[in-house]
Write a structure and sequence with these properties.
The complex is a heterodimer of chains A (408) and B (551). Chain A is of the alpha/beta class and 408 residues long. In chain A, 31% of the residues lie in helices and 21% in strands. In chain A, strands 4-3-17-16-15-5-6-13-14 form a 9-stranded mixed sheet. In chain A, strands 10-9-8-11-12 form a 5-stranded parallel sheet, sandwiched between helices. Chain A has a two-stranded antiparallel sheet with strand order 1-2. The radius of gyration of chain A is 22 Å and the shape is globular. The model of chain A has no long low-confidence stretch (mean pLDDT 95). Chain B is an alpha/beta fold and 551 residues long. Chain B has one domain. Chain B contains 18 helices and 26 strands. In chain B, strands 1, 2, 3, 4, 5, 21, 22, 23 and 24 form a 9-stranded mixed sheet that branches. An 8-stranded parallel sheet of chain B has the order 6-9-10-11-12-13-16-20, sandwiched between helices. In chain B, helix 10 packs parallel to helix 12. The longest helix of chain B has 16 residues. The radius of gyration of chain B is 22 Å and the shape is globular. Classes of the chains: A alpha/beta (408), B alpha/beta (551). At the A-B interface, helix 3, helix 4, strand 7, helix 5 and helix 10 of A face helix 1, helix 2, strand 7, strand 8 and helix 4 of B. Strand 7 of chain A pairs parallel with strand 18 of chain B.
Amino acid sequence: MTVTCLGCGCGCDDLTVLVRDGRIVELSPPCPVARQWFGDGTVPAEIQVEGRTASIEQAIEKAAALLSGARRPAVLIAPDLTTQAQRIAIAAADLLRAEVDGATSEAAAAGLLAAQRRGRSAATLGEIRNRADVILFWAVDPRERYPRYLERYAPAQGLHVQNRATLSVSIGADRGPAGVELAAEFGPAEESDALAVMVATVRGQRLGELPAALRPAVALAERMMKGRYIAIVHDAEPGREARDVQRAEGVVALAQALNDGARSALSSLRAGGNRSGAEAALTWQTGYPMRVSYREGAPAYEAATSGLSRALAADAVLVAGSAAALGDPAIPLDRIPAVVIGPAASAVKGAKVAIDTGVAGIHEPGIGYRMDDVPLPLTPVLPTPRGAAETLMRLLGALRAGAGRKAP
Amino acid sequence: MSKPTRLRIVGGAVHDPAHDVDGEIRDVCIEDGRIVATLPDGVPTLDAGGMVVMPGGVDIHAHFASSTCNHARRLIPDEHAGDRAPAPALLEGEARSGTGGTVPSTFTTGYRYAGLGYTTAFDAAVAPLLARHSHSELDDTPCVDGGIFVLMGNDEYLLRQIEAGERDRAKDYAAWLLGATGGYAVKIVNPGGIEAWKSGQRNATGLDEPISGRNVTPRAILETLTDAANQLGLPHPVHIHCNNLGVAGNVATTLASMETLAGRRSHFTHLQFHSYGGEPGKTWSSAAAAVMEYVNAHAEVSVDVGQVMFGPAMTITADAPVEYLLHKSSGRRWTNIDIELETGCGIVPLTYKDKAAVSALQWVVGLELFLLSQDPWRVVLSTDHPNGGSFLSYPALIQLLMDRTVRDDRLKQINQRHLAGSALADGLAREYTLNEIAIITRAGPARLLGLRSKGHLGVGADADVTVYAREADIAKMFSTPRYVVKGGSLIVEEGQLRRAPAGQRLRLAPGYDQAIERDLRRHFEAHSTVAFEHYPVRDLPGAAVEIGRAG
């Protein structure tokens, strides 16, 4: 039986892991991201209240008291939880009338918001693998942060494609792959304009005289239009260059426009840790993929402000998942009364309550989502020090028993 | 009242058409979640005097628990903001807040179904690859027993078997796929047309049109899967969304599809969207009469209507080429997701306006299908939620069927452009009776789904019961049942949701020739991005119904 890796959003489910004496000693096929994410599989197994070792009963009681006593609590769904555990964390937020958010980056949020405004044309990764005869890498070389994307989802040939053309765009320091059929480069300030020119070209609109810097966009669009099924691969996570928020809308619009003459799909590269799962569960439970507030007794969308930044205004916060992977910059959890339940929770300095759990897919079974919203089974390779879903359920039970639903 | 294990519903006018009970005043006895013949004196009672008692509603075709629905939810933050749903005040069970709109959040979906007196519902289009997601959503959809119909008919493996003439293997594949996905029925959407959309052919418009240059046609897909479902003895026949949905003149395709399957048990879904006369790009007209003439004469055919109701809707379907055309014609937001080796997904939010000529025609066509039906057991109620309108519009639809005055008044207000020659415009006097409503909303769909313990109030049936207070306003009566009992638990009291039990999962495990797994494994290893052993959904609640397993 192979296992699934949540190290990045690729969700490769073909890994073989060798465990010896309770440690992961070998991983194949080799992948630097997987190697880092799995590590040797050891995680701390402590329970702490105010920095001191405590029983699980004491920790849950303290956590429930702290959260239910807060006037303005927040729940942050950090990476490395199964979707089952994420759902329980959202239930706690509902009960607490809390703000709740996942680990959706600002860049990824821009993509989600663009898709809300326009819709989007996308595909699961296998469709790109088996169908795309033209792939444009927009300001990303997947080999850097998504090492096996090319091997698994864009190999030289697929079921319905014998010859795949690769195109590349670089935006400042965010470089597309080299050695491709056609490459272009734009400055960060030109990115949105370049996308607009490509959309206009695809739609057959008259463009007039273009600045020299934007002319390669026309050639790119014209090459793309020769394809039968065109995939546009972009990194939805933050890159080296600061990004215009209109950029996300631009790539969505380009992929949609290409469908008038051919077929086209946008592939948005996403980080791992089951971030996509958190967005999926939030959506089905609240109607919104991120940045939800239960303060008024029902979900409200506060799309303009990230939950991570709003957490700074909270008077108590529940972090469910790997706190260390939560945000960039990291949230100063020593400044907010914090309950942390997740992998390496005890490493969070200043946490009022810390309960270490296992990592989804390494120690815990459940479901994790790939970057293309395909849910995959997670098969643990090591025993968990304490189940995250089980622990969160215990907290939820204590919250229900103690405070019930908060009054408006 | 606390949750009783025994309950006697006293003095209501019972409509239980499966047992030829039509408004008879009698008691309904419940014990341990089932209907029983009698109960001793002294058990808790529920006074239903002067009220109407029916089995719990059964929704044969809706879209409410799928990855597609979740993509749709993301498209409508404005609708959700306008329809916030605080947590209900429950006496027992987890109370969750949510949002509504045309695609409500999951908990709200369950609560709202219960609030209508519906206790069973099926999501009618789930991509096999994403079945795991649907089951997670169903886990969070309380109050209704439910399941999923699994999309087939555009999947690479199946097309290969048809092309190779391997019909037995196609049957084994359908059985394996139902078991692997925790599915309940085989669903065909636009046979071959989605694969055509993905391959660059754009769509399949004729039953004998080769798909993507292969020796496979929509007709062969229809025949293969219909035979597979029937040979496997599935409780529900193949559930068919025909080619050419929403296109003027598509009645020819619909009738040709029905004739292809003549003599074979089959269910044609949201028939309203497939019953148009006229000519693409030129004229529109109703072809409901022609379609119903065929349906009335063929007992092996069943349908649900897919009524359009005026107001906001969300079109969500695996029929991705249709959604592309809708996007281009409406200019509305459009989401398309191609799903590897299997199917597709398209989403466009839409509003049906009574002053818009095509919307008005669609409204008329749906009503004609109902009113020209001679056998309500085979022509059941749906709006293809949320495609034709929300399931919350069922009471208004029931009113249109039961009250000719309301219907005719509404008819006068709508755009008449395409209504010339329509049966409804010419005058249809029929008014559905309460018993007929009980048939098209619970007894009929339950029977068509092969749910032996649902849709009726006979001894041994699931104790899913809805009690309506009589109202002159029929829409009001059906929108606010006084009591709802789910699995023996009184979940709606005095019109208020008071309990929200988890629903049961309805799924199958048909038998198949195990040898197919070797071939499937090779196929997965060559082409799939998901490992064969990771594909099946495991650890689902409840036990699957095993069908046709050897030994």
